[in-house]
Amino acid sequence: MKGKKVFQVTGVAAVMVLLAAGASMAMDKEQGPQGPMQGQAQARGEEHWKNEAKELGLTPEQSAKMKALREENRSAMEGVRAQLKAKDAALRQELDAAKPDRAKAESIVKEISALEEKVGLARVDQALKVREILTPEQAKKLREWHEKNKEKFQHHREKGARQGKDAGAKPEKAEK
User: Fold this and answer.
1) For the chain, where are the alpha helices, taking DSSP H only?
2) pTM of the entire structure?
3) Residue 170 DSSP class
4) Closest residue by Cα to residue 153 from 123, 131, 128
5) Which of 172, 171, 173, 168 is nearest to 92 (CA)?
6) If we measure between CA atoms, which residue out of 81, 163, 90, 148 comes closest to residue 115?
7) What's the CA gap between 114 and 119, in Å, rounded?
8) How far apart are CA 100 and CA 96, in angstroms?
9) Residues 6+ apart with CB under 8 A from 44
10) pLDDT in tens, 87-146
11) Got the DSSP string for 62-86?
């Protein structure tokens, strides 16, 4: 029974952080797509939140609290994401060196792991804060909605991870 409760809390945490991170990244010019696509991503994020509020039956007060929570999370994670991106680039650079230094690479991996732990703990924190905002019935609807859309979230998570890695990559030069 305890394992099921942990799974439920983790599931809600994962959903809320994915939703918050997805919207944050879609609205964050540094993290999201550049150019005309950025505006489209922001519009999709806003539409998503309106649909979620309607689906869960959020009151205007709850919607305002959820929005504030998303903004707080985005602000808090902005620096961590930038650090992760920099560490990932440093690791790539070290591994691409003519003579990579194993100790240095391992040190960078440990730094990346510590930053990823911060992100994971922020997910749990956000999920717990969301649970304080939602009624038990709304939390149940959210879990059901997550189950129904699990594959969709996985696709977006993988797509976002690929875009994040590609964003830090240097464009290849065209051969003459």
Assistant:
1) 2-27, 36-56, 60-96, 102-133, 136-148, 150-168
2) 0.59
3) P
4) 123
5) 168
6) 81
7) 9
8) 7
9) 26
10) 999 999 999 999 999 999 999 999 999 999 999 999 999 999 999 999 999 999 988 888
11) HHHHHHHHHHHHHHHHHHHHHHHHH
